[in-house]
Amino acid sequence: MGLVESGKIPKPLTYLLNLSRRYSLWMYQWGLACCALEMASAMVSPRYDIMRLGVIPFPASPRQADLVCISGTVTDKMAPAVLRLWEQMPDPKYVISMGSCANCGGPYWDSYSVTKGVDQIIPVDVYVPGCPPRPEALLEGIVLLQEKIQNEDMATRWTGDPIVVS
Amino acid sequence: MAITERDQLNYIATQAADARVNVELETEGMTINIGPQHPATHGTLRIVARLDGEQVISADPVMGYMHRGYEKLTEVRSYPQVTTLINRIDWVGSFANEVPFILAAEQLMDIEAPERARYIRTVLFELSRIANIILFLGDMAVQLGAITPAFFAFRDREFVLNQIEAVTGGRFHPNFDRIGGLKDDLPAGWIKETKQAMDKVRTFCDQMDDLVVGNEIFLQRCVGIGVIPPSVALEYGLSGANLRSSGVDWDLRRDENIGLAYDEIDWKVWTHDDGDSFARYWVRLQETREAANIVDQLLDNIPGGPIMAKVPRIIKVPEGEAYVRTENPLGEMGYYIVSRGDTGPFRVKIRSASFSNMSITSWILRGVYVPDIITILASMYFILGDLDR
Amino acid sequence: MSSAENETPQADGAEEAAAGAEEAEEVEEAPVDEAREALVERFRSEMGEGVIEHHIEVGRDTWVRVENGSWRHAAEVAKGAMGMDYFDFLSAMDWMESPYGRSEDSSVDLALGRAEAAEVSDEIVTGYAGGDSRFQVFARLSNLVNHTSLTLKVDLPDLTVASWVEVFAGAAWHEREAWEMFGLNFEGHPSLRALYLPTDFEGHPLRKDFPLLARHVKPWPGIVDVEPMPGEDEPKEEATAEAGA
Asked: Is there a contact between C194 and B64 if contact means CB atoms under 8 Å apart?
């Protein structure tokens, strides 16, 4: 991709690539707690049906995924596994943090074993608030993420500084 | 009965596995790590299994990936705050988590909820049981390779969740139960809609009967797999359908009913003698039907009156200790509350069903084949929040 | 359990007198729960010595405290002679008052008069059936045939008690949990190792002197729901001012 490295991608090409990326998100489900059920409802239940947004659930491995939805409480014991999973995903990768626990610790903000927000470990693109968020809220989160992808300049994303989370 | 034969076979198989390990020229043992994130573990449980060929020599569950420290957090929260928190223990049947805690607090405060509140509590309790077990009925089939039941389960579960939401305002975590009664009364037209939802639940059960229970593959993978004899079940403190499918006729709704309206209606406790994975599925399937019947009967008999007893505005529970357990969707759930007369509990021991149910894992997985791990774990049915707390 | 059967015959006879004497001290004021009294009486006679104290909440529940040395024996007696073969749970208790109070020190909490709760006494007050040590282990057994249950308690002056694993295999996880959460030792447990927490975790979270650091960094915001209604904000402000003074 010489174009990317040169930092100049023609606008129409960017648009086309982003459009295709936007509607073929492979979403790895990282169901941890209560929110996992709402995420499963969004994926499996005919009422919500996440696939109509172009999101394909249940890839076999994080190595095939574009998007991971961290849904639920991340504990300190789980945190290394979450990081490892995220590292296995190929770039460009996106993270949705679903539910209060993954956003900031939620009701377990004072617990001795809960990580206060998954963004301490991995960068998060979209936060979906709620305890747990309704499936509709997750769908909106995905729509927001798709908007973000559509407006993304791949050149800056791919040639910019690597994402570092302290 | 068939149990003893299977028991015997299991024992012989285990012995054979042990003997093979001891022969030095045999194949090398292998350690397989299932989880922590694996679809077959219902969340984040990790099982370290040592294998000899295809047979499990020892299996050691590693948990704590969902440990959130409930028991410590209850010590720094007031009683209404604790209710909010404990909703999230068994997140699939949330309302059922609140009930034993509230009942224990009421017992210490010497308050009794009005008759109407008791009925509505019981109705919601059974609705959360249905919402919970429907998921199991679909999910167990998914673990064995059939995805359709899961679609059916999620489809029909929505109807039940709708009804719960219509009363409590929350699909998942209602936080509706109060010390002394309930937050609100039923909305208009709710009884009729709930009865329609119960019809859908019964249809779902019939579909599962056709789709799953009669399925040759399902039967082959479940019948005779993971047999738990009653004596072992008691020793490990198994409860709920796991205990009843081992032939122990014990249901807290009937045998130790505190503060709920089960005594006033006509219903049946289902048991199965085999104690295998199929029995556990079958018992839960029957229980879902029975729960729908219970809900119907309760709805017919709901008395009028207030839904809240007289309770002081700032709740302080008098000094004492109380343990109340109820038959939750997953099994026996109880709260041992120690109060010091403060606005919050001094200590709460949460006796969750999955914790005791899963403590048998190492025992039951010994000597089984690798694919059976999935069947057995699925049929034991645990929720990680309930297991790790 | 064969061992339980072995224990049973020796339990009768000699200690009955002592048990009866203790029984007389227990004066229930108003109503007497005869079934539960009989249950405790039976347990005492089966146990012989070793039962220190008991408590009955009429119509509700029964507590029995046994000596540290006879903890194992108590399980065997309950399972064998009393038929309480259903292992409900086992856990532990730290009776010390938390040095951090209830961690409710925001202005709203103080206004509600919760400041007293934060003043902590060193005295160890134990619950039903008494106790002599800071840590207690308690367990509950049920008889599914005649629907009786018993909560057994034991003192742990030197943080050690016998394990129940050989009597109730299901106690293994419960004892691991107590070991991890309270730092109590169970003699004869096959593998006491961490159940929940990561291996590098330090401390025993359920001990009362284990601080919840998040609460120390950021005080609990208090009852947010008591924000004043549009018409009535004056009294609320007064209350906060008082607490601040």
From this structure: yes
Q: Delineate the domains of chain B, giving CATH numbers in brackets.
A: 78-360 (1.10.645.10)
Task: Decide if C205 and A113 are in contact by the 8 Å CB cutoff.
Answer: yes
Query: Within an 8 Å CB–CB cutoff, is residue C214 touching chain A?
Result: yes
Coil vs helix vs strand at C154: strand
Task: Please tell me the distance from the alpha carbon of residue B99 to that of residue B105, in angstroms, as a whole number.
Answer: 10
Distance from CA of C60 to the nearest CA of B (A): 8
Q: Hey, are the CB atoms on A33 and B43 less than 8 Å from each other? A: yes
Alpha helices in chain B (DSSP H): 2-22, 70-74, 79-86, 94-109, 115-143, 148-168, 190-208, 216-222, 230-235, 241-244, 252-255, 277-301, 353-358, 361-365, 370-380, 384-388
pLDDT digits (tens, 9 = 90+) for A28-58: 877 788 888 888 888 888 888 888 888 888 7
Which chain A residues in 87-146 lie under 8 Å from chain C, judged by CB atoms? 105, 109-113, 116
Q: Is A88 on the interface with B (CB under 8 A)?
A: no
Q: What's the pLDDT score for residue C24?
A: 43
Interface test with A, best of B38, B46, B67 (most A CBs within 10 A): B67
Residues in chain B: 389
Start-to-end CA span in chain A (Å): 30
| C217, closest residue in chain A (CA to CA) | A110
Dump pLDDT digits (tens) for B23-77: 555 556 778 887 666 655 566 778 888 887 788 888 888 888 888 888 888 888 8
Q: What is the pLDDT of residue C3?
A: 39
Of B5-14, B111-120, C42-51, which range is least confident?
B5-14
Domains delineated in chain C: 29-225 (3.30.460.80)
Planar angle of CA B293, B299, B305, nearest 5 degrees = 150
Q: Choose from C105, C212, C224 for mutation: most chain A CBs within 10 A.
A: C212
Q: Out of A146-155, B290-299, B319-328, C229-238, which region has the weakest mean confidence (pLDDT)?
A: C229-238
- pLDDT confidence tier of residue A159, bands split at 50, 70 and 90: low
Q: Is C150 left (phi over 0), alpha (psi -120 to 50) or beta?
A: beta
* C-alpha B283: how far from chain center: 13
What CA–CA distance (Å, rounded) separates C130 from C154?
Answer: 10
Using a CB-CB cut-off of 8 Å, the residues of chain A touching C213 are: 112
Nearest Cα to Cα of residue B79 among B363, B322, B377, B344:
B344
Residue ranges of alpha helices (H) inside chain C are 2-11, 16-25, 34-47, 71-80, 107-111, 115-118, 171-182, 213-217, 234-244
Interface test with C, best of B46, B82, B236, B337 (most C CBs within 10 A): B236
Over residues A56-80, the pLDDT tens digits come to: 887 878 888 888 888 888 888 888 8
Taking the Cβ of residue B107 and every Cβ of chain C, the question of whether any pair is shorter than 8 Å is answered with yes
Sequence-ordered list of residues with C-beta below 8 angstroms from that of B180, at least 6 positions apart, any chain? B106, B109, B111, B113, B308, B309, B310, B311
For residue B355, which residues of chain C lie inside 8 Å, CB to CB? 173
pLDDT given for residue C122 in this prediction: 65
The CA angle B121-B126-B130, to the nearest 5 degrees, is 145
Check CB contact under 8 Å for A47 and B158. yes
Q: What angle in degrees, to the nearest 10, is found between the helix axes of B94-109 and B79-86?
A: 150
- pTM value? 0.82
**Three-class secondary structure of residue A97 per DSSP:** strand
CB atoms within 10 A of CB B141: 25
The pLDDT assigned to C243 comes to: 45
